Amino acid sequence: MRADRQVPVYEVAPLLDATERLFGRIDTPDSHDATRLRLPPAPGAHVVCANKDASVRGPGYVWSIIAIAIAEDQDVDASLFIEDCGFVPGSDVGQNELRSRLRWHLSTVAKSIMYCGQDQGVSYKEIFTGCKYLRTRAHEWGCALSCAPYVLLAQRAVPTGRTPRSLLDLTLEQWEELMGWQPLPPPPHDDDIGGIGVGIPRRPGAEAAAEDSLARSSANGRPAGDQ
What we know:
The protein is an alpha+beta fold. It contains three helices and eight strands. Helix content is 20%, strand content 28%. It starts with 7 loop residues before the first strand and ends in a 9-residue tail after the last strand.
């Protein structure tokens, strides 16, 4: 990959959304309602994954980053996952300072992808990235995990009469309709959780103009905006 090559960077939110709509979710740890679970890995299954974690005693913030670089020639080269986690200690860290630090981390992760491509002779056509953070209070212990599990697409995820390749021509909404699934409700809002480029739900009633956006950027520069 040329040293001056620029690769567009996009928010990872749509990929996380597609994953959630495939696996489903559980909103509360004490809930016995499994209707929001769809095609999760089997309980107790040993799922191979790439991951990184960080933990800290509050007060402060723990954060995690995921980045996915898509190879230009996928018949020859592998796409690349990058995970990063860390923490920002202290109770006096403001949101602007926190998000500025995280945007810097996102930028360095994107640059590390470019260096990996140069070292391995692999060209990437696009990068998807984002981060999530959690406020941890003085009496709490916070843990952040960034994880890329390696799973096969469940056979039941292919609608009757369709082929796996045909899924490429469907929108997520069309796929859910063919599966007979109702749309998942919005995830619950939590004031202690925020993020950049990962589709964190806004506080109910918040103005649309307050929603952040991770715009197209270059891996040679800093990702622009927040979400």
